[in-house]
Write a structure and sequence with these properties.
It is built from 5 helices and no strands. The protein has about 160 residues and is mainly α.
């Protein structure tokens, strides 16, 4: 199992509703123990917290290593040691955005229904799903690229010039 197997691609409006409900209850100090447990269990798909930022950064690192084997380079190295309570600084988000842009530049989505965000600012649940779908699709894309390589002129071997 790799980090790519942990990516989330099925966020929905109900996840946003649950997040907003729990957030409101916690702010109003009316949350039950079960609601607090759910909030702290990092299982909320509709919010990017430290756990999610670390997962995304680790996925980008994994993708960077994979595509480096094929001669591609990813610019930017996002922070991957976020802790609960950390507040992302502008320069840290810029590193995330630079890496996302670099991956998108080298590997634009092959599925027209996927439109990942160009940055982590104002991300919708569809954009978050699409970003993680893009990361999941890259190993398959790399495999297809490797099958398309022309080996040492073999495309033309055996042909006779007249």
């Amino acid at each position: 199992m790799t980090i790519l197997d942990t990516l989330i691609t099925d966020r929905s409006d109900s996840d946003v509703e649950l997040y907003n409900l729990l957030k409101d209850k916690i702010q109003q100090r009316t949350a039950t123990a079960e609601e607090w447990d759910l909030w702290e269990a990092t299982q909320l798909k509709a919010a990017y917290n430290a756990h999610d930022l670390n997962r995304i950064a680790s996925a980008m690192d994994c993708i960077s290593k994979l595509i480096a084997d094929y001669g591609y380079m990813v610019k930017g190295s996002p922070k991957s040691d976020w802790k609960e309570g950390d507040i992302p600084r502008t320069d840290e988000i810029k590193e995330f955005n630079k890496a996302i842009q670099s991956i998108l530049h080298n590997f634009p989505p092959t599925d027209s229904s996927i439109s990942p965000p160009k940055s982590l600012s104002n991300v919708t649940i569809k954009m978050a799903n699409d970003l993680e779908k893009l990361f999941i699709s890259i190993p398959n894309t790399l495999e297809r690229i490797s099958f398309a390589y022309e080996y040492c002129g073999t495309v033309f071997s055996g042909e006779v010039n007249i």
